[in-house]
Design a protein that fits this description.
homodimer; 364 residues; alpha/beta; Aspartate Aminotransferase, domain 1; Aspartate Aminotransferase, domain 2; 7-stranded mixed β-sheet; 3-stranded antiparallel β-sheet; 13 helices; 40% helix; 15% strand; transferase (chains A, B); Aminotrans_V_PyrdxlP_BS (chains A, B); aminotransferase (chains A, B); L-serine-pyruvate transaminase activity (chains A, B)
């Protein structure tokens, strides 16, 4: 069959950086090959830079972004622990589901979709939670929440709380500063602003979360105690085989991160900011209304109301078939009324903005 | 850095088929793109052929082989269920660990490493287990066990038992006939005989195991009820987003399976048989002793004793640095005394046999 070169402007996956695609096709190394272990170490070091952390346990988990969410809760929740979870979109909801499965008593703090998380409401929800969790960049709504303020407020009252942040859509697109913010566990995906195919979940754990981890979680595959012995060396400094690492995907992540760091994180963030602003201005000039609350909009993911009387699915289909452009539907109850447009990683470019605006003008 | 083109003759990963590598670099499709869903459906259909099953729920799980083991137990074990697990190597041991984490009362039936599983001993271990599990091709020892006989014996006594089989090293290298054998859940990895990079776990579930699955397992990521709604359509036939599928890896699996089926499964098995036999004969002609019991040796994975007085690690290092050949050490207590040599998928070729035997002659 003919290959299709789509322009992926949905909520992810995005088109990868060319370096990341080339690395996928490089000759395969064994998962215990000294050269692969060097590449893995360098990948973890690059991830530390992108996460803004010195955490020793910073690594790519062998699954897509959601596996990071699962690992975060599986390794920290003890039966009956109170987990206060801010919900302002689909991925906050998912956190509640996952935390509950691992035995947490979930206190869910609902916000209107399209609004950011309110730290004070999260704080007021429970006097003594073990865990507080929130989504930094809600992929379902295009909203950024202030994780720094949330973590600071939580910590000011109780130093012992573990803070978990979902950074799937923010990492390498907007500033993420794990150590400065005081976040204990955070996870991301490779297919958004990092500019790599989906299949890995960049993950980081603070020393105090590591010390307090569940010693024998229900999941073997995501038992951080076992994975840590392979990735960063065990107590004796030696590496222990856990599972066969997805070597090609890790080589691709290594290359994608290399491209991001070569450009420079401040430059990458500025690029995302500029193109996101240009898209959002362009949509408003066309008379469309943005969904996410002003002042809290992600540049890398724009949510916009479908104009009255327009068939959302028909427009997306025409964009795909006539222009090869994928954009996303809204999530859940907004499936027919909102579009989500991503400008992430390699697609955070002005030519993508012009292409999308031009195609949309034709179709509407 | 310079790229290294290793010859991967360890227990996996193996060098992928060229078609599988090329597919990794193809333009990326979105995980909800109609073209990708078509490719996913075709991948599942190809997997059914390779598994020898009509199971509707036959799919690639988004993780490496071990995630298949985890999914099998996570979705079937109810607290206190008796799981009789045959152990004749590392992966049988791992099954006990995983099943125990999900609340099974594990009855472990130990066999000498290097020997196949004895169905009668497994049968005698408990009068009324809920689950019986065994490894078809033990990657740690190079031994094949008779899953057909085991499943038949178990079923003859009690139709209700769920049978779980680890086929990580066997699938697409030796005949696997899920429906004929009466296996309920089976999993594999892509990096062995299927000839694709590591990162996916081909998985299949029988209708009766599906009907009896745990409705709300601790793991969200591996909840088959949720994944099934994306892969094969939910009750209403529609697809529901679960997690972002690793699209590049699935495209690669599609291509690898295409290559295997184009050659033909009987031809692929015969190729593995011929090269495995040639390698095993060649090693014996050099005076080396094979580890696995005669009559139960896998052609795709040969285990051989390190000759007395030979430094196992030094030989492996010389093979790697002087010849670019990776072979594997033994597992656990056999780390220094056994080598494992894989001839899997694209590497099941006579030139690999000659290369390895020649290099080994030089080094020993």
């Amino acid at each position: 069959m003919a290959l299709l070169d789509r322009v992926l402007l949905g909520p992810g996956p995005s088109n990868p950086y060319p370096e990341a695609t080339l690395a996928l096709g490089a000759p395969l190394l064994g998962h215990l090959d000294p050269e692969f272990l060097r590449l893995l170490d360098e990948t973890c070091a690059r991830l530390r830079t992108v996460w803004g952390t010195a955490n020793r346990r910073t690594l790519p988990l062998s699954g897509t972004g959601s596996i990071g969410m699962e690992a975060a809760f599986a390794n920290t929740v003890r039966k009956g622990d109170v987990a206060v979870i801010a919900v302002n979109g689909l991925f906050g909801e998912r956190m509640c589901d996952v935390a509950g499965r691992y035995g947490a008593e979930v206190v869910r703090v609902d916000h209107e979709w399209g609004q950011p998380v309110d730290p004070q409401r999260v704080l007021d929800a429970h006097p003594r939670p073990a865990i507080v969790a929130a989504v930094h960049a809600e992929t379902s709504t295009g909203v950024r929440s202030d994780i720094a303020a949330l973590a600071a407020a939580v910590r000011a009252r109780d130093e012992g709380v573990l803070v978990i942040a979902d950074c799937v859509t923010s990492l390498a697109g907007s500033p993420v500063l794990i150590d400065d913010w005081g976040v204990d566990l955070a996870y991301s995906g490779t297919q958004k602003c990092i500019g790599v195919s989906p299949g890995l979940a960049p993950f980081t754990v603070s020393e105090r979360a590591w010390a307090r981890r569940v010693p024998h979680p229900p999941t073997w595959y995501l038992d951080l105690g076992l994975i840590g012995d392979y990735v960063s060396g065990g107590a004796g400094g030696g590496r222990t085989y856990h599972h066969t690492a997805p070597v090609a995907m890790i080589a691709s992540l290594h290359a994608g991160l290399g491209r991001v760091l070569e450009e420079g994180l401040p430059e990458v963030f500025e690029r995302h900011r500029l193109v996101g602003t240009a898209l959002q201005n362009g949509l408003e000039e066309m008379g469309l209304k943005l969904f996410a609350a002003e002042g809290h909009r992600l540049p890398q993911l724009t949510s916009v109301w479908v104009p009255d009387g327009v068939d959302s699915a028909a427009v997306r289909k025409r964009l795909l078939t006539e222009f090869g452009i994928e954009i996303g539907a809204g999530a859940k109850e907004f499936a027919a009324t909102v579009w989500r447009i991503g400008l992430m990683g390699h697609n955070a470019r002005m030519d993508r903005v012009e292409l999308l605006l031009g195609a949309l003008r034709k179709v509407l």
